[in-house]
Write a structure and sequence with these properties.
Blueprint: E1 2-10, H1 32-45, E2 52-61, H2 69-82, E3 84-95, H3 102-110, E4 115-121, H4 125-131, H5 137-149, E5 155-161, H6 168-181, E6 185-190, H7 209-225, E7 229-232, E8 235-237, H8 244-250, E9 255-258, E10 263-266, E11 269-272, H9 277-281, E12 287-289, H10 293-304, E13 311-312, H11 313-320, H12 324-337, E14 341-344, E15 347-350, H13 358-363
Parallel strand pairs: 1-2, 1-9, 2-3, 3-4, 4-5, 5-6
Antiparallel strand pairs: 6-8, 7-8, 10-11, 11-12, 13-15, 14-15
Helix pairs in contact: 1-2, 3-5, 6-7
Bound molecules: iron/sulfur cluster.
Iron/sulfur cluster binds next to loops.
Length: 367
């Protein structure tokens, strides 16, 4: 049996945040049950499910914790009926503070979910308001404590830096407060102002590139001193607590995505579901992108080099039947010469001090 990750997309949110361009909506609640009926139908229809053993499940969104827990439990039961599930399966649900209470967490835990990813974003009340978040720091604290009381021993929290009017000092306060919670995993993302979001229409006083870099370095230093090792550009974990599901994306392992706009990577092919929730409910078929072997080689490098562990030369040659230097030799040499990429014990990786500027290095691998 092959291992498989499962992603389930839940596109409902209480309110749209000012920076958000995810496939999520606050005005489609009347379709909640119809959406979950379609989602369950899609999971049941997946062909070849019997050849897989599911070892990670990620219920993301949107705000999965904002829908009725019954619907989440229906999804969990359907996955359990359709697939063999590994005993050690990592099962994550994304939750936002103030959308779920102790009873909700207890029900998630009873359904087999064993990891919570919670959006804190900032510990500063003004910044939270500015972002358009619906919660306060106090709400986050209550939700975090409820999740712990319900038995969750693996909790991740999300933070954002580079916010309007944010200074390194304010960011440091958010980091310190976040570390006090003692979560097992912390993600830190730089704010990007995406088109067609409320932020894109506002005049914002954003930190300049040097200040953003300072904030990122602050996070790396501070989190590493507090027991969180960086294992991907934006992700930090205590020992044994890396996100196994996200590692699948970076390692180009197989995963199946269910729900509106969800993507799958199966048998070397990418599939994308219809993004419109209403069209998805009415049964629009997924689109398949046929990628060439070269595209996959580029992706393997592009994704793998985001992680601290980088890529194993032997993994590359086993997968593509070619040595990595025969395909990317020039690019590797160029980056090794400037000291940005190194090799050790058969692995190729971006040096830690270059991870922040890795985008320019990674783009070299996309032909
Ligand atoms: S809660 Fe998350 S998915 Fe929903 S609008 Fe805010 S950022 Fe977007």
């Amino acid at each position: 049996m092959k291992n498989l990750g499962i992603y389930v997309h839940v596109p409902f949110c209480v309110k749209k945040c000012n920076y958000c361009d995810f496939n999520s909506y606050s005005d489609i609640w009347e379709y909640e049950d119809a959406y979950f009926d379609a989602l369950i139908g899609e999971i049941k229809k997946m062909s070849g499910a019997e050849q897989y053993c599911v070892d990670t499940i990620y219920i993301g969104g949107g705000t999965p914790s904002a829908v009725r827990p019954e619907n989440i439990i229906r999804v969990m039961s359907t996955i359990g009926e359709q697939f063999a599930i590994a005993e050690s399966c990592e099962i994550t649900i994304e939750c936002n503070p103030a959308t779920v209470d102790f009873e909700g967490f207890r029900r998630y835990r009873a359904s087999g979910i064993n990891r919570v990813s919670m959006g804190l974003q900032s510990a500063n009340g003004e910044e939270l308001l500015r972002l358009g978040r619906i919660h306060t720091l106090g709400d986050f604290e209550n939700s975090f404590n409820d999740a712990r009381r319900a038995g969750f021993t693996n909790i991740s929290l999300d933070l954002m830096f580079g916010l309007p009017d944010q200074t390194p000092d304010k960011w440091q306060k958010t980091l310190s407060r976040a570390a006090e919670f003692g979560a097992e995993h912390i993600s830190c993302y730089a704010l990007t102002v995406e088109e067609n979001t409320p932020f894109s229409k506002m005049k914002l006083n954003l930190p300049d590139d040097d200040t953003q870099r300072e904030m990122y370095d602050l996070a790396v230093d501070f989190l590493e001193k507090h027991g969180y090792a960086r294992y991907e550009i934006s992700n930090f974990a205590r020992r044994g607590c890396k996100s196994r599901h996200n590692l699948k994306y970076w390692r180009l392992d197989e995963y199946a995505g269910f729900g509106a706009g969800a993507h799958s990577f199966l048998n070397g092919k990418r599939l994308a579901n219809e993004a419109s929730v209403l069209k998805y409910i009415s049964g629009a078929p997924p689109e398949c992108t046929d990628e060439s072997g070269e595209d996959l080689m580029s992706e393997f490098m592009f994704l793998g080099l985001r992680t601290s562990e980088g890529v194993a030369e032997s993994d590359f040659s086993e997968r593509f039947m070619r040595g990595v230097d025969s395909v990317f030799g020039d690019i590797l040499k160029k980056n090794e010469n400037v000291g940005a990429i190194a090799r050790k014990n058969g692995r190729i990786f971006i040096k830690p001090e270059f991870l922040y500027v890795s985008n320019s290095i990674l783009c070299d691998f996309v032909k």
